[in-house]
Design goal:
single chain; mainly beta; BH3618-like; 2 helices
Length: 166
């Protein structure tokens, strides 16, 4: 189960039913209930035309989840709760953001960060060693009750955190 600060993300964010089949390059065909979609009304920056996603995980112990576009089998974001990396956020939502999320209770808000792997330099590319990077400057905010999300860009500060495995 995807975990946020040691707590399991509400099961409603990861359940599947038997109504709609979506294709996923990563997961293969999935049968899901449309009402379990997480809708990003503005899309995710760079992917604005893709509005609906499903959140999957591979095992019950996995801290990494996968946000799969319901209309593009090749569009999947790896996500995790920032608390799993000891990152904690403090910011204020604008009235517009709160309205977009239809957020009534802060307890219904889940933050996730997009993580990705890439080569840091030519040497790593030759050896095949990948760095895992996270986009901490633009977390995904999801209202677990309304199933609405958006990516909040926090500012222009350049902060990069790289986690390397030995």
């Amino acid at each position: 189960m995807l975990r946020v600060g040691g707590e399991a993300v509400p099961h409603a964010l990861t359940r599947c039913g038997v109504i709609v089949k979506i294709e996923s390059t990563l997961f293969g065909p999935q049968i899901c209930e449309p009402e379990t979609n997480i809708v990003f009304p503005q899309g995710i920056p760079g992917f604005e035309k893709h509005k609906a996603y499903q959140l999957f995980h591979q095992t019950s112990a996995d801290v990494v989840g996968y946000l799969q576009s319901t209309d593009d089998p090749d569009l999947t974001f790896s996500v995790l709760a920032p608390e799993n990396l000891n990152i904690h956020y403090e910011f204020t939502l604008t009235d517009e953001e709160q309205s977009l999320l239809q957020l009534e209770r802060v307890e219904d808000l889940v933050l996730l960060v997009i993580v990705y792997r890439r080569f840091a330099d030519e040497k790593q590319e030759k050896t095949g060693d990948l760095n895992v990077n996270a986009n901490f400057m633009a977390p995904l905010l999801i209202n677990t009750q309304a199933r609405i999300g958006f990516q909040k860009v926090l500012g222009k500060a350049e902060r990069k955190i790289t986690i390397k495995s030995d």
